[in-house]
Specification:
By secondary structure, this protein is α/β, with parallel strands linked by helices. It folds into 2 domains: 132 residues, Nucleotidyltransferase, domain 5 (2-Layer Sandwich), CATH 3.30.420.40; 167 residues, 2-Layer Sandwich (Nucleotidyltransferase, domain 5). It has 11 helices and 10 strands. A 5-stranded mixed sheet has the order 3-2-1-4-5, with helices on both faces. A 5-stranded mixed sheet has the order 8-7-6-9-10, sandwiched between helices.
Length: 331
């Protein structure tokens, strides 16, 4: 079975062609980072317009690279949300038109669920498992009970972790995307240079809050000079605080759920220091932690197609009037 996967949830236009939901025939991700760099963050109107420009050409290139014709495709999986609503609508409208014209099945999938299940592109994982999805727009912990069935265990009450990285990078004027730049600079810094707070570590829930940490950074910057001799240390300390909170809360959720398997996905999961902290703690506490390869951490059409295959097997199809949504229900 050939599955076309489409993701336009934010600022990356991605289309993939998968065979039987696992083997990638072809996969293209077109980044808009250079377009948004001057603004220090994603501009929704620019992102959606660029998706409109690119999606036809990327789809055609994916078919050529995958050695397939439109009629060979059996199923179309597409992000229905959450995401920037204008961007989501571009991919969803394209998928609807394709399915209407060629009479194909459509599966509109949850972008966050796709990140949690992206690990299946590389290996099989036994259910249940706890999944942390951490990106520029989302920081959320899910209990994946079975294919196509999950519960939300915790989520951010304000900024997502990736959003905090980007906003601090914008404040310092060091470039975009902020998370990657901060990670590169923090490699030569001391993680204990500044004692930044660990928000909600003592809270009884598995929720997150990063707005206070961002404010703590800004307060430190007003009181101290951040220059070439200190910036890497300050950024390393800031990054360490985020990593500590993400890892602590995820392990708390796993223990409460009596689950020993943890999966980490989303753009921030590509962060080398976060991966290191997860693996170090997993070794000490006897947990199995699985993190997607960096290419599958960021938004991509392959994970959308893979998740669509699970829903197809469960008989979960979408009508052509499926609505796009910008946020998912948490409770």
């Amino acid at each position: 079975m050939l599955i076309l996967g489409i993701d336009t949830s934010c600022d990356d236009t991605s289309v993939a062609l998968l065979e039987d939901g696992r083997r990638i025939r072809s996969h293209i991700v077109s980044s808009q980072a250079d377009l948004h760099k001057r603004f220090g963050g994603v501009v929704p109107e620019i992102a959606s317009r660029k998706h409109v420009e690119l999606i036809d050409r990327i789809y055609e290139d994916v078919l050529v690279q995958g050695g397939a014709a439109a009629g060979d495709i059996d199923l179309v999986g597409v992000t229905a949300g959450p995401g920037l609503i204008g961007s989501v609508l571009v991919g969803l409208s394209f998928a609807k038109g394709f399915c209407l014209a060629l009479k194909k099945h459509l599966v509109g999938v949850n972008h966050i669920e796709a990140h949690a299940m992206s690990i299946f592109l590389e290996r099989e994982v036994e259910f249940p498992f706890v999944a942390l999805v951490v990106s520029g727009g989302h920081t959320i912990i899910l209990l994946m009970e079975a294919p196509c069935r999950f519960k939300v265990l915790g989520s951010t009450r304000d900024d997502a972790a990736g959003e905090a990285f980007d906003k601090i990078a914008k404040f310092l004027g060091i470039g975009y995307p902020g998370g990657r730049i901060i990670e590169d600079m923090a490699r030569s810094g001391a993680t204990d240079y500044v004692a930044f707070p660990r928000p909600m570590m003592d809270d009884t829930t598995c929720d997150f809050s990063f707005s206070g940490l961002k404010t703590a950074f800004l307060t430190y910057a007003k009181k101290h000079t951040i220059d070439g001799s200190t910036i890497n240390h300050v950024l390393a300390s800031f990054q360490e605080a985020i990593c500590d909170v993400l890892v602590f809360k995820t392990f708390k959720a796993a223990r409460r759920s009596n689950v020993k398997r943890i999966v980490v996905g989303g753009g921030v999961a590509a962060n080398g220091r976060l991966r290191q902290v997860f693996m170090e703690r997993a070794g000490r506490e006897g947990f199995e932690v699985m993190i997607s390869s960096p290419q599958f951490c960021t938004d991509n059409g392959a994970m959308i197609a893979s998740l669509a295959s699970f829903h197809f097997e469960a008989g979960n199809y979408s009508d052509l009037d499926i609505k796009a949504y910008s946020r998912m229900a948490i409770k």
